[in-house]
Amino acid sequence: MIEIDGVSKWYGQFQVLSDCSTRVARGDVVVVCGPSGSGKSTLIKTVNGLEPFQRGAVRVDGVEVGDPKTDLPKLRSKIGMVFQNFELFPHLTVRDNLTLAQVKVLGRSLEEATANGLKYLDRVGLLAHQDKYPSRLSGGQQQRVAIARALAMDPIAMLFDEPTSALDPEMINEVLDVMVGLAQEGMTMMVVTHEMGFARKVADRIVFMDHGRIVEDTSKDEFFSAPKSERARDFLARII
Ligand code: ADP
Ligand code: MG
């Protein structure tokens, strides 16, 4: 479903991604971890064309992301992305957050978009909050709305970039529970996170990055029991 093939990217002289390759098969969950500044966000954003790159190729469902002829807005509409800071529209109610892109991008009727959006809002346990503005919700609730909003687009894959790292500890699990449910239902997911409990539960593979390189790309059992690189061993020792 997602193929990252020899991707390199520079900011001027600084190489932020070095020959990165990995794959996410349909229905798989790949967790990306590694120290701050190692290139995780940059890598995951190449998948939906939010980060251009100079070398290599990224394909999603057979579509070449770096090809200038690719319709990026269309591709992005098929890939859900959830960020650290929720990124809900502050001036719209929860319900309007859920319907906007369905109507504007997918051309759904407001009625259809509302029914679909509320189905996902119910799924994340927030149906009663549909008339509220995001600022009236907790961080955990806002992030669950952001996930529902992404799912309402019926994506073929979901990207998560540290979805729980801006949350107070007591709210982390309500978001992870939604993500575990999605993983168990077979959603294709690429998840940047340091939540190793989540990784142990649902990851099919772990990608470990350091200084712009993928230094491990392995099964979770191997990653947790016998990480190959010293950097990964250090990293695990510090966060677990
Ligand atoms: P991570 O998500 O693993 O913390 P990032 O992908 O955000 O890492 O960043 C990787 C590196 O690229 C960092 O060293 C960061 O400072 C650098 N970087 C990110 N964006 C830019 C930019 N627009 N210009 C220059 N350097 C950048
Ligand atoms: Mg990041």
TrEMBL record:
Protein name: Amino acid ABC transporter ATP-binding protein
SUPFAM superfamilies (alphabetical): P-loop containing nucleoside triphosphate hydrolases (SSF52540)
Record domain ABC transporter: where: 2-236
Major localization listed first in the record, in broad terms: membrane
Family: Belongs to the ABC transporter superfamily.
Localization of this protein: Cell membrane
Membrane topology: Peripheral membrane protein
Signal peptide interval: none
Key words of the record: Amino-acid transport, ATP-binding, Cell membrane, Membrane, Nucleotide-binding, Transport
Organism: Massilia terrae
Superkingdom per UniProt: Bacteria
InterPro entries for the chain: AAA+_ATPase, ABC_ATPase_HisP-typ, ABC_transporter-like_ATP-bd, ABC_transporter-like_CS, MetN_ABC_transporter-like, P-loop_NTPase
Keyword Transit peptide carried by entry: no
Upper taxonomic lineage: Bacteria, Pseudomonadati, Pseudomonadota, Betaproteobacteria, Burkholderiales
Annotated GO MF terms: ATP binding
Pfam short name (any one): ABC_tran
Ribonucleoprotein as UniProt keyword: no
